[in-house]
Design brief:
alpha/beta; three-stranded parallel beta sheet; about 25% helix
Length: about 160
């Protein structure tokens, strides 16, 4: 099977992470309500990328693994959780995105990371195997070290730890 990883946040897009308001975190960094045209351009940009990925010359893809679970419709706990970093709902219009995907590849599994619902065909718990048996299909996201990307001083799990996990 072939899977494609796609990060919904795009820090190279000025319509997602605007360098006019440079911040050290990974969240969007402008008030979406003050600049809805920027967010609409970002949504169109994202949907065009997905369209190219699933409808272009890449062939059949079995799994579309969408990362960046904070790029989604607002939940009740978002504002208190994010505090001053809250820049507004990051609704990427998943129904439209899913329609694009299903229009080209109806059997593709979609994983909208950490967002239970119609666009998460299976769960993706992080950094470990769930302590209780899940009632839905799942895969764990587990790093070989402590970080998701390259860090020169990272401490890696031993082969025995990896096999045990």
């Amino acid at each position: 099977m072939i899977g494609a990883y796609f990060a919904k946040p795009d820090w190279h897009s000025q319509d997602y992470w605007w360098d006019a308001y440079a911040t050290p975190n990974r969240n969007n960094n402008y008030l979406i309500s003050n600049h809805p045209e920027k967010w609409d351009r970002f949504k169109d940009f994202t949907h065009a990328q997905i369209e190219e990925l699933v409808g272009g010359d890449y062939g059949d893809i079995d799994i579309l693994w969408l990362d960046g679970g904070w790029v989604r419709k607002e939940r009740d706990y978002d504002r208190p959780r994010w505090g001053r970093q809250w820049k507004g709902e990051q609704d990427i219009d998943m129904p439209r995105l899913a329609k694009i995907v299903r229009g080209h590849q109806p059997g593709m599994l979609m994983v909208d990371r950490s967002i239970p619902g119609p666009y998460e065909n299976y769960a993706t718990p992080e950094r470990g195997v769930p302590e209780i048996q899940l009632t839905t299909p799942w895969e764990s996201c587990i790093t070989l070290g402590n970080d998701w990307g390259y860090v020169p001083t990272d401490v890696y799990k031993s082969p025995a730890q990896v096999v045990h996990i």
